[in-house]
Amino acid sequence: MTTAAVSESRPPLVMVHGMLDSSSVFRRLLTHLPEAQRPLLLPDLPLRCGITPIAESAALLDQHIQAAFGPEQPIDLLGFSMGGVIARTWVQLLGGHRRTRRLISVGSPHHGTLTAMPWPRWPMAGIADLKWGSPLLRELNGNLDTLASIACSSFYSGLDLVVLPGWRAVLPVGVQRMLPVWTHPQLLRDRQALEPLAEELQRA
């Protein structure tokens, strides 16, 4: 986990990794950002290869945010893959909307993915939460009021074989942009994805 002192000029940026990743997955993206641009929080969440339910991971994310920045400091959020759904769950179901300025999603299955369909709820609760029409996704997509005041943007790969089909990896509100990469990992590795993401993160 990485943190820095809170700046008054720009809100902290919280980055949430995906199911098989750790916070190190953002290493290349961070090299495209100016050093000390703003405070960062990169928590390592125990997603246990998809065993941990999304709601439980969102509660752990809340603990990290509260510990780093207190209960009121506004923040920006970026979530990759499952991390985007975790971040969104925190925003919509755990009161995060009251302090979130921007929500940036990268390759996150907000409308479910076919790759999750074969997995049973037990023991793979986190993966099962990403099935088409799962109770969690129905709840998130059924009431978008908490996203109304947040600047939302989604980045995705049209050929993604992790979120399948790729066009389902978008938030139901906000700007959507398909990146010219071929695979899910390239969303955080390829220059053609990293440069647009860095540009988005450096917007005021």
Write the layout of secondary structure elements.
Elements: E1 13-16, H1 27-31, E2 40-41, H2 54-69, E3 75-80, H3 82-93, E4 100-106, H4 125-128, H5 135-142, E5 151-156, E6 175-178, H6 191-201
Parallel strand pairs: 1-2, 1-3, 3-4, 4-5, 5-6
Summarize the structure.
By secondary structure, the protein is an alpha/beta fold.
Notes on the protein architecture:
It is a single chain. By secondary structure, the chain is an alpha/beta fold. The chain has a single domain (13-201), classed as Rossmann fold (3-Layer(aba) Sandwich). Helix content is 27%, strand content 14%. The protein contains six helices and six strands; from the N terminus they run βαβαβαβααββα. Strand 3, helix 3 and strand 4 (100-106) form a beta-alpha-beta unit. The longest helix has 16 residues, at 54-69. It is globular. The mean pLDDT is 94.
Structural class: alpha/beta
- Beginning-to-end CA distance, first to last residue: 24 Å
Query: Architecture, CATH level 2?
Result: 3-Layer(aba) Sandwich
CATH fold descriptor:
Rossmann fold
Per DSSP E runs of 2 or more residues, the count of β-strands stands at 6
Strand percentage lies at: 5-15%
Q: Number of DSSP helices? A: 6
- What gross morphology would you assign? globular
Q: If you compute it from the alpha carbons, what radius of gyration comes out, rounded to the nearest whole angstrom?
A: 15 Å
Order of helices and strands: EHEHEHEHHEEH
CATH class: Alpha Beta
- Assign the CATH superfamily: Alpha/Beta hydrolase fold, catalytic domain
Count of structural domains: 1
